[in-house]
Amino acid sequence: MTKLVYYLLYAVSTLPFRVLYALSDMLMPLLYYIIRYRRGIVRRNLTSAFPEKSPKEIKRIEKKFYHWFCDYFLEAIKLLSISDEELNRRFHVKNPEVHEAWFLKGRNTAGFLGHYCNWEWLSRVGKDMNPERRVCLIYDPLHSKAIDYVFYKLRSDPPIGVPTPKKDILRQLVTWRREGRMSLSGYIADQAPKWENIHLWLPFLNHPETPVFTGAERISRKMNDVVYYVKMTRPRRGYYNMEYILLSDDPASLPEGELTRRFFKMLEASVCEAPEYYLWTHNRWKRTKAEFDRRFDIVNGKVVPKKNA
Question: What is the pLDDT of residues 17-36, one digit of tens each?
């Protein structure tokens, strides 16, 4: 079953972009009007993030989001068969040289990114790097084995891009360090943490207390990586630009949480610039600080349930 799903989606990936976008145009009304996929969550997220916008503006962004969301899936599948020539034409990295400059100084780098624009295409940033380098593409395995296999394949970019489960990050980075192989680590750092992983609350998109992951920051501090914000834009359909913006070249010197704060501030600016390209289907603010304080304590840096909660 897993291989069957893969071969079917691979066949879809060989279609020209104009055909894929025609399919996307047909999928959008199905997903939005008939299936109504997570429309309640999307509307609630948009309304709370942009209270200054009228219902008409919110609905306009909402429809544009669903249209892009269909594009996102088919663009991601396209990575299974896209040629280097077409990828280079459609995906431009403004300043890939920043990593090599640090590698030559003996410093590894890290990129913090959000679920914004087509983050799957970022698995191909190694196209502009020395083939001796490595890109650690950190991911959380999906529940469906078939879909997980497909996304593992489309995220792989051998020999440079190596998909790595988040539980194996440190092991992979330490192995490369022992081998003398320089690397860039990519972290999708805006996911909503489970209760036991909440160690920091930040203002984000008009929500004064948003629970955030700090794992990317903690690993970057431990490895002494030079950290960049990965800014991605979509100038037109089927084309993406990307730029690395320095967050810190000395993360261990910053107060705890500061690196994560800088990342979310830059991500918020990106989202506000073109909100239709953010992943609004995620129930981002389902956990509140008030409920956390009622149910949990932090003891020696660990989140533990209160005895009488």
Answer: 999 999 999 999 999 999 99
